[in-house]
Queue: 4 jobs
Job 1
Amino acid sequence: MITPIPSLNAMPFTIDATTRLGHVHLTVADLDRQIAFYRDVLGLKLHWREGTTAGLGTDGEDLLRLSLLRGARRVRGTSGLYHFAILLPNRRELARAIARLFSLRYTNYPTDHVITKTTYLDDPEGNGIELYADSPEDGAAAVVNGNYIVRHANGDPSDGREPLDVEALLSELTPSDRLDAPMPEETKIGHVHLHVADVDQAMHCYHDLLGFDNQGLVRAYRMGMVSAGGYHHHIAFNTWAGVGVPPLPPDARGLRYFTVMLPSQTALSRMVERVRQAGIATEQTEEGSLVRDPSCIAVLLSTFK
């Protein structure tokens, strides 16, 4: 299901370069089990729990919120979350996170994207997660004529999906490093990757309407990427679940919304007014304005705390 966004005749709009992502909010079927996973396996701290909703993160703000919907079912073949990505501040902290997963025998898939070092896993309810650290010193990547081109720092080409040298990464740790230590305060949501119904409509929404930088449509991969401030990507989107897929039904587990954090109330008001001028409905909440992209994925527009 696609809800087209009208063409915009206004002057080009660019989102503030300091914009970043805030918390991701998931609907879950078993709140206790999900809290235990994100606390004990990933190393987030339980910040609060009120009734059927909880917030987790580091010593700073919430990175994740979980809301219980009893009987929520797992539904595939819809728009929604492919994965959300937790950005660790350096390789050592990524090494600690991966070593923790290994020690718990929790299935994960370490991967070297050259510009990032990462591992992929699913939570107990099937939500995709990426844990990663940026590594721009190792090479560069760009979309050229619709192709994703990756090169190592020495110029050698890469497909951007190499096996991670886990032994080298774990050498960042010392015997005194505790694997059960919580994730550090500098940890944040680095990006979200979405299943959408149409990549061109998604690009129109996130680039032309919301003003994220267009980092390229990779036609061969059926995906696109946008960012703020020159980052490789804050939002990626693909049609790997199918072109024209319907939205996630209201009784399903999965993504409730993700958060885009603007640097000021002025920037937020400007964004919301632009969305309204495009004829898109907004829903006011205590933390900002909720809007939906063409694939009915909810985005909370908010400000830095």
Job 2
Amino acid sequence: MVHAKIEIIPIHIPAAIKPDDKLDLIILESICKAHENLYDRDIIVIAQKIISKSEGRIVNLNLINPSDKSIQLARKNCKDARIVEMILSESKEVIREDRGVIIVETRQGFVCANAGIDQSNVEDSDNHVVLLPIDADESARKIRHSIKKQTTKNVAVVITDTFGRPFREGQTNVAVGIAGIKPIKSYVGTIDMYGKKLKVTEIATADEIASAAELVMGKSDRIPVAIVRGCMYDAEDKPSISNLVRRREKDLFR
């Protein structure tokens, strides 16, 4: 099988995204201004930050009254107690906290630092934070549906955020919301090139697409969107990002 060439096209969005902005229309307008077109089976990759901003997931820390638990945890980890209060409120469980790092399981099921709460590229970032979308799968579905309605093109949508990784330095983009694309490609039961049956090989397709798109995306460059074209993927009408989250009983570190 000969694989097609894959293209990753950056989409510049110069305006700051605000609550209640019609992000689907802004993305389509920006694609047009970039003199690009959409095609069936394109993948639109969108940074979580602009999803959260458009959905009003911005918190004014001046309105937060931290609990005694948050104050104690903040002192221990040299953090703003208001942010710690938000971390706890957005989390199911604190997995580990040490040396200024608080690892939690978020309400969405992700295990990450600080519940994905971010102060970068936010107006008055000393007193405001951006939270993860409540349901990024639903956010992705809405955008995908709108784009199909506006353009007739059947695309997939991947919403991304930057996470750290166990045992590896640096951070990389991962998928936190999906629509129209199966997040994992399983090779379990297939035969390798030497005739051996594969038992565990599963490829995190959505994460790989998210990471690849990050190569052309940039916060400071105002490129929060990219089009990935030519990538082979399995379509799925209503996928769930939860399929990428390792179940607790299989997690050796919890």
Job 3
Amino acid sequence: MQLTEKEVRIPRPGQDVSLIGYFEREVGQHLPAGAVPVRFVVTRTTQKEHHCEVGVLTGLEGFGGGVPGSIFEFRPRPGESAEQFNAVLLVPTGIGAEIGGHAGDAGPVARLLAAVCDNLITHPNVVNASDINELPDNALYVEGSVICRLLMGTAAIRKVRSNRVLLVIDEHPERQISDLVINSASAARATLGMDCPGVVKMDPRVRLRAERSSSGSAVGRIEGLERLCELLRRRRGEYDAVALATLIEVPEGTHQEYFRSDGGMVNPWGGVEAMLTHAVSMLLEVPSAHAPMMESMEMLATRFGVVDPRMAAEAVSVCFLHCVLKGLHRAPRIVRSAADFGQAGVLSAADVSCLVIPDGCVGLPTLAACQMGIPVIAVRENRNVMRNDLESLPFAPGKLFVVDNYLEAAGIMASMKAGVPPEAVRRPLSGTRVSVSATGKPARVG
């Protein structure tokens, strides 16, 4: 199996068109027979067309698990549950986000927003800081493709007390690196109390190569994915979540360029990592997260001096893995049967109160929220390489809030939770609208 990123241009549709269904049809025309989309994003919108990137999986014919359902499948929610206020926080991987585009530097945002909701549903990119993970107590660590399906109404998530976390790593050419990674798993067992049924070394390894798209976002190419999927399928009864630690090929000099860029370079590793975990979680129906393995002991010994604070977690880490193990330790499990969506401890699209994203980001979560009537809060200060005008999407009145920063986003969330429209706490307060409904004279009888 091979996973690659494909760039396609799609004409802008007319009015009153379901964008999700439209994108599904248009993307399908650009893919070869048997190819399965695993990731979709609109990188830029012009007056005439949408510039899109699609993660495409091919070679599924021999996969014993069968072909997964379409990522574009959409099931409207029956309504919103008001029992709790639950927010989804997304900072898409590989888009060079000013906040959250480096090494867990959106963690403070997660802690802020978690303080004004009952449950904060977020994904690894937000809180993964190499050997550090400051996930708030009421935050749920959910792989990105699972959040997509949650908002599309085709899956739900179930809270758990703990998971059995299987660790799959590459057979590294330098044994010292493999030993460090195994020690990281042992440390999680000793400090978190994580249940790890074992560490599995892959040889030959799945090949991950980091690339960059024309939009400037980080993407990549994955080859030999069937070996990983077959391994996980054979051992499916042994684990509840999968941690992956593998090598990622990058051009020579990438590390030096990245750490000396003062935060100006898009993290090159994140895009292909997201592609891998999207595929694994979709094909195996299991929570997953990835950490890159250090290329060599020589690279481990390299010193980059004092780096941008957003990169500091990477600069002081050895294995980059503990964040993944801590997140997966209590990651919610995936629920597919709609009959179970209403059970205790299960959160579905009906339980999502709002979605918080960087401004300009359009993918399936944004499109689903727009179509579901889930309020979206877009943050201007979190600049990134995406170039879309969210106000051009068909949001219902009062369902899109474009704010300057996450402090303002927290205020909007607090007003939603309190049931107070934001304009009610601002001045001047607009006048009450009064209209006259003209009615005809009553019809004569007889």
Job 4
Amino acid sequence: MKILIFGAGVIGTTYGWQFAKAGQNVSLLVRDEKKAIYENGIPIHCRDERGKKPQQEQTVFKPKIVTAFSPEDKYDLILVCVKSNQLETALPVLAKNCGKADVLFFQNNWWGDQLIKGYLQPEQYFFGFSRIVGGWRNGNTIECVIFGNSVMSTLLGEANGEVTPRLEKTQALISAAGLRPEVSTDILSWLKYHYVEYIGACGAILRAGSTRAFADRKEAVREAILATREALAVCRARGVPMKAAPFNLKLYSLPLPLLVWIGQKQYQEPNMQSFFEENLRQGFNEIADQYHNVIGEGQRLNAHTPILRGFEPFFLQ
């Protein structure tokens, strides 16, 4: 399969690398000014937890590097991994140049296909999200983790919930790469809940001043959990069914003391702290955009979000 990775971040690069290892023809789209950085390959440091024992792999991924594409390139699949706040800029480029490729939007999503359908026909696009891959950049090096937990998967779905031939074809592609595909019949609802998953923790971290200070303070973790509950309530006020939420968000109905104990243990893990630190550093604009979208929608729907709104000064700094 001929695949274009549109968005050379951690997720896009890691998936491209795994697809190439599985024998696919992978190209990576980069900006003109970045081409020289990528031409000698992309260093990847990966902790692969999919086997019985975690493995550390260091390699240099050398995909075909392109700075533009057109219908004449005849890609079978375009994996769009740009940040959600970059989608509006990417859509005209995709509409003009995707040709007959299937376009898989692989990003945070609060508004469904409201914006997308202004540029593409429904038969041209579908949706996905990675929970099996995480990581951050360290300079030009991709630091990634491929999780071994069976509940961490690559989610796929059509906007209308149907299981289509292209969905099955993509499922087979992702399975061959060992990235554990899972088909959702309501992926847009799932994505809306995932969109709010981390903003409570990010707000509490910004208030605390660092991830470590946040994780060491039980009250800060408690505040993050209560803020997340408020964000979930905004989703429910929008009419999004809770049954579509990621598995871990369904646990937020557990007693608060238990959630605080579990959360503090998780946030004290070094990998979790690195994940938040690097994502807040490198992806702050997207996270702030998510935050403001959620509190704005909460205000429109008269949802009660006092703790979440209390983080606003820290997102505005």
